[in-house]
Amino acid sequence: MAGSIGLSAPAAAQTDRDGQQRWINIVNRSNVQIYRFYMTDVDTRGWGDDRLGDDVIEPGDSMRVVPTRRQRDRGYCQFDMLVVFENNARVERRGVNLCSTTNLVCTSTRSCRTQ
């Protein structure tokens, strides 16, 4: 399933009130489905809810994910992310700056890099 999920902002609202852009495209270049995705600001403990819900990101597809309204209103740019693949492999990325990064590209079940 390519495209955006229900947590994404409408096309007209790509920046927050402070003018910062806070979203990330999860790009799956691996050969395994991305089954879950968690994202939280760096000062919050725990991962919270799976941001994909009932969706998955198939190999070759991408999906835009936006932080919760509360996280955006708090003004955070730094976020921790956890990608869980269908085979239960996990990749963590800490301190991703959403105000300057637009893509998290997963090339394997061991490697997801920001661009």
Description:
The protein is mostly beta strands and 115 residues long. It has a single domain (3-9, 20-114), classed as Immunoglobulin-like (Sandwich). It has 1 helix and 8 strands; from the N terminus they run ββββαββββ. The chain has one helix at 69-73; strands spanning 3-4, 24-28, 34-41, 62-65, 78-85, 90-97, 103-108, 111-114. The chain has a 5-stranded mixed sheet, with no helix packed on it. It has a 3-stranded antiparallel sheet with strand order 3-5-6, with no helix packed on it. Strand 7 (103-108) and strand 8 (111-114) form a beta hairpin. The radius of gyration is 13 Å and the shape is globular.
Question: What would the keywords be for this entry?
Answer:
115 residues; mainly beta; Immunoglobulin-like; five-stranded mixed sheet; three-stranded antiparallel sheet; 1 helix; 8 strands; disordered N terminus
Brief summary of the model shown:
The protein is mainly beta and about 120 residues long. It is built from 1 helix and 8 strands.
